[in-house]
Amino acid sequence: MFARKHSFDSCILWVLFGLFLGGCTTGSSTKRVPEANSFPADQCLSCEAIEPRLAPITYLILHHTAAPLPSALDILRGKDPQHKVGIHYLVSDEPVPRVFKLASEEFSTSHAGKSKWLNVKSMNQASIGIEIVNLDGNTKVYPKAQITKVINLSLDIIRRYHIQATNVLAHSDIAIGRKVDPGSNFPWKLLAESGVGAWPDDVDVERFKIIYNKKLPKNSELFEMLKTYGYQPENSQAKCMKLALEAFQRHFRSSKVNGEADSETVAILAALNFKYRKSN
User: Fold this and answer.
1) Of 48, 94, 105, 131, which one is the catalytic site residue?
2) pTM for the whole thing?
3) Catalytic annotation present for 94
4) What is the pLDDT of residue 128?
């Protein structure tokens, strides 16, 4: 009887110990393993800008902080009542980058703000957000070690939630004209080659360039092409189209972010629709 009780008590202790190791104690600055079935963050902190999640996770949104690590951590914990922002993960720019977990994935955080993609408005509920420490991803490079950490974190999230390639997005993709992060220096092609996000096939781009070198689409056609892929410009007027094309180029043609619909930009868009939206 004593032996059986001792065995039972030991099992209970081991279960409790396992739960302790599997938990991420928000509010603690000590190094812990996060909750089960999520990425093993190096450090867990609490974020106050969270809400119950009311939609399934189908998107992954990437940002740059536009602030150094200490300031970014302070801001993204959502403690300022005038600036309630939050994030699930933050990847540092230290020589050996760390992943900070600020909010449990079961909650939504206010990282996307006013945003839309396809038929989804306000992306917070349907997404997980990753902030990457960089003062300006349009002018500053991303260290290789940091990008490797971002890729590993993203792959883990994509695997667990079966996120489609076209649903891995930049903040600038979903907030046209309002946000420009993670910027034109963010290596989207490298991420796509690693299994994170979408990228057109070169052969398709060249094929469409032949077509669009002869004649570019009208603004109304280009407007529909952008909307088919997911971008949601307000209308097809010149100002809105320029902002939408800048957002598109920042992601898929970073060598020339000018908002102009030249043959290469349009060919890339057509190739993406051909590959992912079955439209040509």
Assistant:
1) 131
2) 0.87
3) no
4) 98
